[in-house]
Amino acid sequence: MMLQQAPSISVCRSKAYQTILHSYTRRRCFSSSHRRAREEQMYSANMRVAAYMCSALIGALGATYASVPLYKIFCQATGFGGTTKRVDLDDLDHAIANSDQTIENTSKKRTKMDRFFNKLYSMSNVPGLQKNNRGHANTWTDEEAAQKLAQLKPHPNGRLIRVRFDATVGDVMPWSFTPTQRDVRVVPGETSLAFFTAKNNSDKPMTGVATYNVFPAQAGVYFNKIQCFCFEEQRLLPGEEVDMPVFFFIDPEYVDDAALANCNNVVLSYTFFPTDWDDDEDDEDDDE
């Protein structure tokens, strides 16, 4: 009887190598598949992050452009941070006609803006205020104050309130911006007019916008503007100088506010910021 011959050493080694190679190949295929899956997940996650960042950037740009009008609407509606309330006015001429002060006659040859500014000058209670030949700023008027102004009367027990004016410009804005008077004194319920002067000291046309605030903040609730240049774009040519009016009154209810019983001084401050720089070519195109 013949004994079964044992497998040779070389055959055993060959089988062992095949087993190892097969196992290695399976592990390598599994590793490659797993790596591709992870790469796809990372790519998908990166795309989502990029989409979120782009959306945030677009939203930030939109908020930047909308910030001024939104801030304007919010502050005028709430008086937040001492921001003055904006008084509506349907017909400024009607309001002026109801004031006790006279309005000088103007020539028919004068422009509508000149006539308007002459009326404002004639209404001013600022001592020594003089008309000048400077340009005029863009201003706004609103729609509901004619009737209120017609019925507005100084508070019978009102005290004199000193309204001081402050004017500044942004650090990168080459304008000079000053009030033409340091302060005025008014009784709550009495209208008053003040002027600010702005000049472009650069060699290029430039556009700016002014924001405003009132201190103390509580007084801003009673500080009503009828005519103002704030939040309106002011475009000045090189060396151009303009007058900017602020026609306002303090509500008679100011006197009845216990929190303001000892407050006889109010500060109205403006700050001008640049909105864009115009080059000479754009200016020439506008002139054409």
TrEMBL record:
Record-linked Pfam families: CtaG_Cox11
Location(s), subcellular: Mitochondrion inner membrane
Coiled-coil features, chain-numbered ranges: none
UniProt cross-references to SUPFAM superfamilies, sorted A to Z: Ctag/Cox11
Transmembrane region(s): 49-68
A cellular-component GO term for this protein: mitochondrial inner membrane
Protein keywords: Membrane, Transmembrane, Transmembrane helix
Any one GO MF annotation of this record: copper ion binding
Superkingdom of origin: Eukaryota
Keyword Oxidoreductase belongs to the record: no
Topology versus the membrane: Single-pass membrane protein
HAMAP family found in the cross-reference section: CtaG
Functional summary from the UniProt entry: Exerts its effect at some terminal stage of cytochrome c oxidase synthesis, probably by being involved in the insertion of the copper B into subunit I.
Name of this protein: Uncharacterized protein
